## 1
Amino acid sequence: MNCHDCQSALPDLLLDPSASSNTVARAHVDSCADCRQELESLQATISLLDTWKAPDPSPYFDQKLAVLLREEQTKAPAGWFERLRSRLLFNTGHQFRPALAGGMLALALLIGGGIFADLARVDLGEAETSPTVTDLQVLDKNDQALQTMDQLFQDEGAADDAAALPSS
């Protein structure tokens, strides 16, 4: 056992020296002067705390406390701002936890939805074409459409001419 591990085992060794789990720590303390000195220092501190006696309260403590409580009860209630301030400063926050959890969930959904929408918009398989190429393709399709229309008009004009000729 090294000194660092022994330092963490000293409180257990101090409180219950005869425990079977403390044999390794006890052997290290017997062989290490620094750890032995630390254990002796802790034992001296505990023995001083054992001799300390708490002072007796004043004989009028209960009466003074009762008077102070009655004074506080008879005071006018604080305004709504002071009540809100004291509630925010001195409470444990248990009533805010559901709202906080809901807010965090909404934030996670917004971020996740935004990321999904951005990924759904990107086409990973296709290379992006330049606007010039797109315009040329549109013009080519328009040219093909115009040629088709010209052919239709020519064919229609030929059919009209054949119908106008008298048959002999």
## 2
Amino acid sequence: MTYAVPKLLSFEEFIAEYGKNTRYELIDGELRDMDPTGPHEAVAGSIAGRIFVEIFCAQLNWLVPKNCLIKLLHADATALRPDVVVLDKAELNQEPLWQKEPVICNGSTIKLIAEVVSSNWQDDYARKVEEYAFLNIPEYWIVDFRGLGGLQFIGNPKQPTFTVCQLVNGMYQQQQYRLGDKISSHLFPKLQLRLDEIMPA
């Protein structure tokens, strides 16, 4: 029995073929289906809405784009598509691709990323923790509303988990929250949020 080796894509090929298709991202040349479902999108939308309210109330010069790719400068064939990303408007003029494509290349432009965990949970809990820390992104939220992550990440028994990763000396310190817990964010100190409130119906 023979197996076909999947074709590896460059960043440019990915942008040309899949740049506007929010279902996919690119990791080391491999096309990754982000497996979005209605509940997944509902949770991502709820998080984006809560963040927007915090930005508005605090009068921060930040924005939450509808769609955004992150190009890792140290990885030519990787384009990550966060479920929610918060950008610093003041840094956008330093972005080489932003005027033509919704692509961010500089970690300094990104204030926060939130990933809603789906079937490819390994990327959210392992790969992206390293990548986002390398980019010096101050906060990274992992929203595992279905409790899909491995036992080493969310414990036993598995249950819905909201993990806040805060960058300290180049590495993320992680704090986990369960249903009923008040979530704490260094970036948004007045945030009033519990995992229960963003769970899909």
## 3
Amino acid sequence: MTVTVPNLDPADVEALGAELDRIRAEVLDERGADDARYIRTVIAAQRGLETGGRVALAVSLFPPAWVAGTAMLATAKILENMEIGHNVLHGQWDWMRDPAIHSTTWEWDFLTTAAAWKHTHNHLHHTWTNVVGRDRDLGYTIFRMSADQRWHPVHLVQPFYNLALAPVFEWGIALYDLEADAVPAGRKTPRALLRDVAGLVGKAGRQLAKDYLLFPLLAGPSALPCLLGNLAANTTRNIWAHTIIFCGHFPDGVQTFTEEQLDDESRAQWYLRQIQGSANIEGSTLFHILSGNLSHQIEHHLFPDLPSNRYARIAPTVRKLCEKYDLPYVTGSLGKQYAATWRRILRYALPGR
């Protein structure tokens, strides 16, 4: 659904942009020891959970050890993926000048390579958020999520392949990040595609060997339950990531845009598009951490390079700004946003506007 904000004149938009710039500048000036302590604490917790999970799965012939090990490993993978990896790759912690937590050196526990993710996500998605024909994340090239996207008969089954995508989400993202569809369109050379395929094969090989060969072999008699525990942990992480990402981008109320609306777009207008093209998910502090603070998707899209622990603090201010300028601030519980996302998937599976 392409929606405009008729009651907001250009001067109001620029004033909104100036206020958002001030929020960003204040956070940049305040970053310091507390923020560094936060991310190092999360990393330490994640590594402790992963170590505990691996050890428990090494003796997982005992069912309680399997349950505990799988739960710890799944939680560790969610933390590594969402609150650490995604945010480190955005450069949120580059200001610390720590090569161990830097966007140029981090390689995450996910099939797609860091370099491919930074291109398709950081650059393409965050630049062209919800612009039909420019933001490939709007439907990930296989879903129809806007009336401005052309309908094809295959979209009739998009509810079914959405269900199938969730447990193998990392595989879907890895294939999507190859941008194979850009080769016929002339936006990518076959040589570049082959290079990216080689990178994915190498990364996937290391990931599969680690979780489904190395650690099961080290588990000896517990090899099979260890392997199944790793599979369950990866599947849980995939479903969780799929849920959070879809609920932050596709619920009812999240708007899409045409390329024509971007003519001479200013920074303030870019801010406005981020607000209109994102949705938040309400929950506890633990929920926000496990979501990578992408439950504050509006704040993340406004300020993708600010430390994620700051989003909860600035969210009330951003919400008040939206109220001041009579802008929608799409938010709700996980259940509400999940249901709204499914309504959108079902609605646009059918032809028509």
## 4
Amino acid sequence: MKHVKKSVLIWYSPREMYDLVVDAPSYPKFLPWCQKGEVLAQEEGGLTARLHLAYAGVRHAFTTRNRMVPERSLTMALVDGPFSHLQGEWRFLPIGPAAACTPDAGPQACRIEFDLSYAFSSRPLEAVVSPVFDKIANTFVDAFVARAEQVYGRR
């Protein structure tokens, strides 16, 4: 099983980063490996999403059920795809005085924590998909930080 754990401090609010992460249909705009992102079902406290990967000649899709706590976290659990195991979590932790957490205070900093563990369902599949997915998993946080700069401006 592979494990990716990243943490970064940024000058964007938890709300701003949460909004980017939960917007799966926008992923193809800034994730070059994502051919399509779609929300299959939306339920109270979460949603089910499917991502279609297309990178270096490899094409696969996977579905996750995502539990969401607005502006705080998103927890992913595998529904289907080329994995035997896929589990992940995004956490958005505000940084700064309590006053900075009010809506009128404007932008604030936050710490993003990303934790993902995964394993592929077969050795042949792992041989083909793992090099691509390893690169994706290890650059995921950086891609969202770059997207925040595009959407909200450099800070």
